[in-house]
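Write out the 3D structure for:
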Amino acid sequence: MERKKVFYTELSYALGLAILAAATALMEKADFGMSMVVAPAYILHRAVVKHVPFFSFGMSEYVFQAVLLAILSLVMKRFRRGYLFSFATAVIYGFLLDGAMILAGLIPFSGIAWRCAYYTAGIIVCSAGVALLFHTYLPPEAYELFVKEIAGKAHADIGRTKTVYDIASCLLGIALSFLFFGFGHFEGVKAGTVLCALVNGTLIGLFSRALDRKYDFRDALPWRGFFMG
């Protein structure tokens, strides 16, 4: 039997966040619809930025995630220290996302073929990033933390739980689009959003199992007890 390679959980955290930011920027550039997970925050950004020019996509992300963490606390009937750190992760991700958006804007290639390539890469890379964040003790974004906590509480498969969450998030995105931009106008929620909602959970499960087969995830730093408290 092939011996597994060591993969440090702290590295999994850093790579997961950077990969997620890149994936989100690619999907925004493709303009086939955002990932259902970030669609509500993206729509909030598009609605507010018209009145508050400095309200970036990254800022919208950590504002929305703060609300999601409050909901998670109510559902779990407790507030863990890790939830606060999860918000800090959301802020870090927000800065990474704004940087990724700037870099994606510099890519000169356009046209339907390139847009399809950006979208496909975005879905795949996004799934890999989430799978990496599921393999770290460091606090993930509120999206991943929500799924992880609910799946643990219900003793449910994390891939299936993620699919249910994604569909619910997609529906919320549609509702917000109608609320802010009127019926008949889908801002940020398009055919690509629906497709992503249907396949993302399965892809994350595949990536997670592939990572578990190849790598032995270990901590490089003695911080697990502090962040898991």
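The mean pLDDT is 88.
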